[in-house]
Amino acid sequence: MLTLEKMRGKTRGMIIFWLVLFTAGSVPGCRSRDAETSQAGGAVSEKTATDRIAEADAFYSQREDLSKVVLGIAVLRQARIADDGNYEAAWKLAKFEYYLGLHSTDDREREAAFREGIDAGKIAVQLQGDKADGHFWLGANYGGSAEISMLAALAVFQDIRREMERVIEIDPNYEVGSGYMVLGRLYLEVPRVLGGDKKKAIDYLEKGLRVGSGNGLMHLRLAEAYHATGRDRDARKQIDFILKMTPGSDYLPEHEETVAGAKELEKKLS
């Protein structure tokens, strides 16, 4: 019988996410968001929300340096002040907060990032609930929050499943099929008593590859699922694909992390 302590241990490490989904970051200490806002331009100027979003995108392209992500967050906050009904500013803020929370080594910064990412994701969904972006990044931040909070983890399964099912309903191709990837990982990692199901995990990931064959992380998650069910030969095929694939230019940091994950899994195969 699964004890509460074992359940907590499994639940604590059950979500990765992300989409793009990654290893530890490299920026020490907790940054002051007020200071970063000052560096990003201080008080809101005459720049439009569209100008601010473009500026934030430029920072995100340098995301391997987490200080650039924090600057991007500050700029997106300014965009939201300039136009609080701007859907793109809201969902991108959720995306940036998720990336920061996933990579920061500072627990307080991670917790704040996921919390504020959830808030931004909810706003995006309220603004345009018929689009996939808000649902996806809201679900991703729910997952990130669950990694560091037992209270959040208790309810996260249903929250993430709801948001990712909505993503697939709206646009199954979103982020190269990442809605399927998140659901697959969710069913793989969650304890069975909370709804986990390895067969469902594999089904979702295999469906995801039909719309996102170029998603390296999807191949890695499927390899992990195959390994978890004793299908190491199939897992190795997925790893071989990752190591030979050519990544898209917009996803180079994520591809490097995916390759590192594939090599680590390869060591565990029989």
Task: Provide a descriptive summary of the structure in words.
The chain is mostly helical and 270 residues long. It has a domain at 4-30 and 85-212: TRAP transporter T-component (Serine Threonine Protein Phosphatase 5, Tetratricopeptide repeat, Alpha Horseshoe). Helix content is 70%, strand content 0%. Helix 2 (33-39) crosses helix 4. The longest helix has 21 residues, at 107-127. It is globular and about 60 Å long. The two termini are 29 Å apart.
Q: What is the arithmetic mean of pLDDT?
A: 86
Question: Please, how many helices?
Answer: 13
- State the helical fraction: 55-70%
| Beta fraction | under 5%
Question: Which architecture of the domain at 4-30 and 85-212 would the CATH scheme give at its second level?
Answer: Alpha Horseshoe
Which geometry do the CA atoms define? Answer: globular
Name the assembly state.
Answer: single chain
By CATH reckoning, the class of the domain at 4-30 and 85-212 would read Mainly Alpha
Reported for the largest beta sheet, the result is: none
The Rg value, from CA coordinates, equals: 18 Å
Ends: how far apart? 29 Å
CATH topology of the domain at 4-30 and 85-212: Serine Threonine Protein Phosphatase 5, Tetratricopeptide repeat
Structural class: mainly alpha
The CATH homologous superfamily of the domain at 4-30 and 85-212 is termed TRAP transporter T-component
Count the beta strands: 0
Quick overview:
The chain is mainly α and 270 residues long. The chain is built from 13 helices and no strands.
